[in-house]
Fold this sequence. Notes:
Integral membrane protein, transmembrane, transmembrane helix, membrane
Amino acid sequence: MNRLLSSVPVWVILADMIYTFVLSILQSFNLTQSQLPKDGLPVAPDIAFSGLQVVANGGMILIIGFGLYVLLQLNRAVLQKSVFPIGVFRALGLIAVLAFSLPALWEWMWALVRLAGGHNTFNLDSPRYLIVAVCQPLVALLCVWRLYGWQRLRSHVAANVE
């Protein structure tokens, strides 16, 4: 049960990334042809820019999605008290997750400071974005906490071997 509850923020972010990627693909297919300006050089077609956006979003989803998948595996291994081998690619995936989610922890801290100062810092117009924004620092904390647990397990196993 603990594994299920602790992995909910990761699954929420994965689902939102996939949903946003599908929306990006659908939006790139539903372009309206814009008029070229009458003076000056013609601009590149919209399809090229939307295609670049889809490729960039797809690359981000592959990198962050792989890191989130590694975090799910690490979460399961630490909760089962088994040593999880972390190689170069898994470490890079976890670093990408931390680079993606640690700034959200920093921003939430400042948002709470501003809220305590009397400023309205939360926008409730888009609940999807608010839910993902709440999940991002939870993913950062989960990653750091599970890496700490992994290190404790690893040192405990090494001490028992010697």
